[in-house]
Specification:
The longest helix has 16 residues, at 11-26. A hairpin with a 3-residue loop joins strand 6 and strand 7. The chain is globular. Helix 2 crosses helix 8. 24% of the residues are buried. The chain has a single domain (38-226), classed as Rossmann fold (3-Layer(aba) Sandwich). It contains nine helices and eleven strands. It is 42% helix and 18% strand. It is an alpha/beta fold and 244 residues long. It starts with 10 loop residues before the first helix and ends in a 6-residue tail after the last helix.
Length: 244
């Protein structure tokens, strides 16, 4: 404890001086924006059945964490109301999509619901990983399976479960993006999609958006500290010794 004795000033000045002294003593020597350890980025995969919240959580995570970037998939499906080409998806024709496959421009691709092609352009992802950025993927279980096969060390996968089947139905109807026929078709496929949760490293029940985002961020921070992601860790450790 620190005792201030013999102080002639008033009590207010004395307390101000004390607070400044204690604040100065508590300041660490951490230098912001200069990370001590470099690391390779990771591929953070968020998957769920339709209406499970993967897109909303992915966007919120990207907004909160500047070390992340969203992978923009290419697709042959038509744009939905409010979607922007190049932001939500790269909307391309079936012929263009096939051309990208033939030229090796896709990391992975799949036919979803036996209807539309979805795929991940290779170049932006590889560039981000080399720069230490974490790439966020809003994809299905098929995409997760393929990424795990080709880039297992870079992949961190999370499956989002709805809190109930009733809630899943409510979310699909409330987003007002699809026809009633399309909603029924998606619900028909949802049970199969949910059955693939066992292929993921982490599972979160998405009952509350803020809580789910917090859990995903905790997973992200823990994965960033894994030894295998750190570049030249031994070189840094070698510097931790007394000066001669």
């Amino acid at each position: 404890m620190l005792f201030l004795t013999g102080y002639k000033g008033n009590t207010h000045c004395m307390m101000q001086s004390y607070r400044k002294m204690m604040a100065a003593a508590s300041i660490s020597h951490f230098i912001p924006n200069q990370p001590l350890l470099q690391r390779r980025g990771m591929m953070l995969i968020l998957a769920s059945p339709p209406g499970g919240g993967k897109t909303t959580i992915t966007r919120e995570l990207a907004r909160l964490d500047l070390q992340t970037t969203i992978s923009v998939s290419a697709t042959t499906r038509a744009k939905r109301p409010g979607e922007v080409d190049g932001k939500h998806y790269h909307f391309v024709s079936p012929d263009k999509f096939q051309q990208m496959i033939d030229q090796g421009e896709m990391m992975e691709y799949a036919l979803v619901y036996n209807k539309n092609m979805y795929g991940t352009p290779r170049t932006p992802v590889e560039k981000a990983l080399r720069a230490g950025k974490d790439v966020l993927f809003d994809i299905d279980w098929q995409g997760n399976r393929k990424f795990t096969e080709i880039a297992q060390e870079d992949v961190v996968s999370i499956f989002l479960l709805p809190p109930s089947w009733v809630e899943l139905e409510r979310r699909l109807h409330n987003r007002a993006q699809d026809s009633e026929e399309e909603i029924k078709r998606r619900l028909g496929k949802a049970r199969d999609e949910i059955s693939h949760y066992t292929e993921f490293q982490y599972v979160i029940v998405n009952n509350d958006l803020n809580e789910s985002v917090r859990q995903v961020r905790n997973i992200l921070e823990a994965e960033r500290a894994k030894r295998r992601r750190l570049i030249d860790l031994q070189g840094f450790v070698d510097t931790l010794k007394p000066s001669p």
